[in-house]
Amino acid sequence: MPRPGARRHSSRVELYQRIVAAIDDGTFPPGAKLPPEPELAAQLGVSRSGLREVLILLQEDGVITRRQGAGSTVNQPPPAPGLERLLPVEALLGPGTVRCRRLATELEEPTDFSGYHLRLAPAERACFWETVVEVDGEPACFAHEWAADEKVLRALVGPELAAVLRASLADPPATGAEGGPATGSGPAPAPASDSAEPAGTMLAAFLDAGSGRHYTARGTLGATMLGTERGAAIARPPETPALLLTQTVWAAGRPLLAAKYLFPAGAPLLSLASRG
């Protein structure tokens, strides 16, 4: 299933990376406004339509903020650790019975999203999870989560988390009748056996394995649409509005987890208090 952050057409990826490189080298520092689209397109030698597509991706990935009539602004780096309590999304949805259903797991090379947010080297690999979080049997959130390279996780979090992620790659996700990810248009997946450990989001696995460690996180909120693939997965129209939360989790000055949480219209409201 195509997902946000997946590798796209090479020219689009190259343009995305050129703009990110200009942000990293200080050409467009945090808080600065990007030039107007016609001017920036001319500077970069690309079409305005191609540039606009990449700016939309950069906004979705939390790199910039775009406002009608005000242009595009480079977002600030993650703030210093504060007093906020970091909780997985399944702990914030409810009331109701919350269940996580894993659709996909993959070990993948850096993409535009994971490479930027996790500062991945070309040779490093990110573990990817796609999870649907349901409340009382209704899809409430799509979670797309990427973890940093296993060597980094072992050094900063410990072997337990790395083992959980590695085991997930050997565990096939829930499938529908044709063997692909279960969707709303096909039969419901068979229930897990009583002995199987229930699935959770990757952030929940981080917090379980890194108990006592001090994480800090930065999130950005935006609006988007559900899209064709995700809409098909939960039998909703592709134009269904959705709230998008992009989040990066850090430890010891290094990003360890990058995620996109998509909440379709009608999903339960997030609560600031833990369900537990």
How would you describe this structure in keywords?
single chain; 276 residues; alpha+beta; six-stranded antiparallel beta sheet; two-stranded antiparallel ribbon; 8 helices; 27% helix; globular
Descriptive notes:
A hairpin with a 2-residue loop joins strand 4 (126-135) and strand 5. The two termini are 33 Å apart. The chain is an alpha+beta fold and 276 residues long. The chain has helices at 10-24, 37-44, 48-60, 112-117, 150-156, 159-170, 202-209, 228-233; strands at 64-67, 71-74, 98-108, 126-135, 138-147, 216-225, 241-251, 254-264. The strands form 2 sheets. The chain has a 6-stranded antiparallel β-sheet. It has a two-stranded antiparallel ribbon with strand order 1-2. The radius of gyration is 19 Å and the shape is globular.
Q: How many strand units? A: 8
What is the N-to-C succession of helices and strands?
HHHEEEHEEHHHEHEE
Determine the fraction of residues in helical runs and give it as a percent range: 25-40%
Q: Given the C-alpha coordinates, what overall shape results?
A: globular
Strand content is 25-35%
How many angstroms does the end-to-end distance come to? 33 Å
Radius of gyration: 19 Å
Structural class: alpha+beta
Major sheet details:
6 strands, antiparallel
Number of helices: 8
- Adjacency order of strands in the biggest sheet: 3-4-5-8-7-6
Mean of residue pLDDT values: 80
Low-confidence stretches: 79-83, 175-197
Helix and strand topology:
Elements (H helix, E strand, L loop, with lengths): L9 H15 L12 H8 L3 H13 L3 E4 L3 E4 L23 E11 L3 H6 L8 E10 L2 E10 L2 H7 L2 H12 L31 H8 L6 E10 L2 H6 L7 E11 L2 E11 L12
Antiparallel strand pairs: 1-2, 3-4, 4-5, 5-8, 6-7, 7-8
